[in-house]
Amino acid sequence: AQSVSQHNHHVILSEAASLELGCNYSYGGTVNLFWYVQYPGQHLQLLLKYFSGDPLVKGIKGFEAEFIKSKFSFNLRKPSVQWSDTAEYFCAVTSVTGKLIFGQGTTLQVKP
Amino acid sequence: KAGVTQTPRYLIKTRGQQVTLSCSPISGHRSVSWYQQTPGQGLQFLFEYFSETQRNKGNFPGRFSGRQFSNSRSEMNVSTLELGDSALYLCASSLDPPGQDNSPLHFGNGTRLTVT
Description:
The structure holds 2 protein chains of 2 kinds.
Chain A: E1 3-5, E2 10-14, E3 19-21, E4 24-26, E5 32-38, E6 45-50, E7 56-58, E8 64-68, E9 73-78, E10 87-94, E11 100-102, E12 106-111
Chain B: E1 5-7, E2 10-13, E3 19-24, E4 31-38, E5 42-50, E6 53-57, E7 64-68, E8 74-78, E9 87-94, E10 106-107, E11 111-115
């Protein structure tokens, strides 16, 4: 069965620090990969997605993620975080079945 | 365009009761997915409907059920409520089934269910 694992449950950074959130999935076939973000008091929204092509994908607000097939990973990165990046981040995977499975989420707290 | 609308926003029920939650997708969207969100568990997939058919189902007991109507609106029902059912229930809609390119999920604000 598909599963998604996010290793960091709670991350605290100072502004301008670099960010990397880990995401690993288990599924042997073709997958589509997503990162969603939930800002305080707001609904979940799509940050970026990977379907095919260049494994380095860029999303909104300066975020990017790299798909490494051999490691079953899709880590999220940002070179310099801002206070406004404080949010909960969810990695998600879908296979040909179309079932979108989310990880447990990582809470990011950015200190001004 | 109006977003995904979930009603009610908040609900308090007692153990043993049943509850029905409603979701109106974005106009034109034919796929609706339901998730249970709890602290530490993230989003647990409940089920997904497309054109009135349940395409996928998560690992929840039979007390959890759902349906989709011809206008794509969806309802989920939980019978014989337990304390552990307290959670935020999220509905998301997409043009086509999730996982297809150009068909990202759009989430509603959720229904906060508290079981006492």
